[in-house]
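Request:
You are asked to prepare a plain-text protein record giving the amino acid sequence and the backbone structure tokens, at your earliest convenience.
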Amino acid sequence: MLRGFYTAASGMLTMQRQQEALANNIANANTPGYKADQASIRAFPEMLMYQMGSENIPTKQSKNLPVQNPIGSMNTGVYVQEYVPNYVQGSLRETGVTTDLALIDGVFPDETGSIFFTVQNENGEARYTRNGNFTVDGQGNLVTTQGYYVLDQAGNPIQTDGMEFTVTPEGQLQIGAQNIQLGIAYAANANELEKEGNGLFNGEAGPVPAGVTYNVQQGYLEQSNVDATQSMTQMMESYRLFEMNQRVLKAYDESLGKAVSEIGRIG
């Protein structure tokens, strides 16, 4: 009975964590470049159940030998192993703002590969983002809306000197007579990157290798790839599963209460 109690409880916790991921996705449905999180649900290892018994051997000593009759396997619960971002390209929205940039995925030799803008966080460390909602600060640096420096290919902040600039599809900023290559990074396995908030990713990424193609679109923003309708449907499904596990848990609790109060009184 206690095993079923904990199995139902694990189902409730799993649905709660899935609800949290879905709620966060819906909250960021209008965040440029946001990648929806998907809850990876796994089952605990199955247990092979046996019926314990004994078999009488008709001998002079009348010995009993222990026997085990297999009943079958039983699952011991579920859990959310991790949140995996969905790196599918979001739709593009035209803004007409020259500092807004959108990355358009091209050909990647790795199925799990993805490209990112490189920025510098408040600690001076390189981070990666798909949010191209940039602006120019008071010192003429190209920055994110959070104030993080946008980096060039050499890892330096991009200085515009407050001048107007154009961006080629290859990611080159043309500022006057200068051509500055945007710091576009490629992660061969984007699933290994870690979300840090503010649209930033941390992990292993490097220069774009040969065979990887992409485009940079100026005056556009990549929208979130969250499907709000689908997320709401999934929230309703997980809520119903939560309630089902809750009812099972309540039934186990009532059975345990009877076992403690009534069975003890009968004895």
Summary: The helical segments are 2-27, 228-266. Residues 92-222 form one domain. The first strand starts at residue 37 and ends at 43. The mean pLDDT is 88.
